[in-house]
Amino acid sequence: MTTVIGDPAPNYYETAYAQLISSYGDLVKKVMDQNLKLEQQMADYDNQHSTDYQKSVYENESTEKIKKIYGTMFYVFYVFVGITILYGLYKGVFSLKTPAYLIAVIFLLIFPFVIYSVEEIGYNIIKYVWDLVTENVYSNVYLQGDY
């Protein structure tokens, strides 16, 4: 290697080292990004095809569907009540001054809020009387032994 005196020699080693470090940094970044993508894809795949907690996932989905249906039925009920009240007023079945009309309107308005409690109390009374008549004090199937 001959160099001319006074001529600046290019520093090939430093340039090559800088390019190597830059390329290595880009490579590491690309590998890290790819690893994150793969981990996310694997987690998604595991969640979709895993049997872990599937019963609770199914129950949560069912619960959400039931809540939507309940909300829809709630509003449909009140639309039906409104139509019934307006039709009764239009046909003259109800009069705004009669106490029966007020009682019917109040009952229809509070019906969705109290019906579950009334049904539950009625069911428990009927179940208790039935178990008392059939001499079955405990209605738990696990205590009867024939499950």
Q: Can you give a write-up of this model?
A:
The chain is built from 4 helices and no strands. The model has no long low-confidence stretch (mean pLDDT 77). The longest helix has 38 residues, at 12-49. It has helices spanning 12-49, 54-91, 99-133, 141-144. The protein has 147 residues and is mainly alpha-helical. The radius of gyration is 38 Å and the shape is elongated.
Low-confidence stretches: none
Helix content: over 70%
Shape: elongated
Tell me the radius of gyration.
Answer: 38 Å
Mean pLDDT: 77
Annotation, overall tally of beta strands:
0
Return the string of H and E elements. HHHH
Strand content: under 5%
The main sheet comes to: none
Number of discrete helical segments: 4
End-to-end span in angstroms? Answer: 96 Å
**Which structural class do the helices and strands define?**
mainly alpha
Spell out the blueprint of helices and strands:
Blueprint: H1 12-49, H2 54-91, H3 99-133, H4 141-144
Please give a quick description of this structure:
By secondary structure, the protein is an all-alpha fold. The protein contains four helices and no strands.
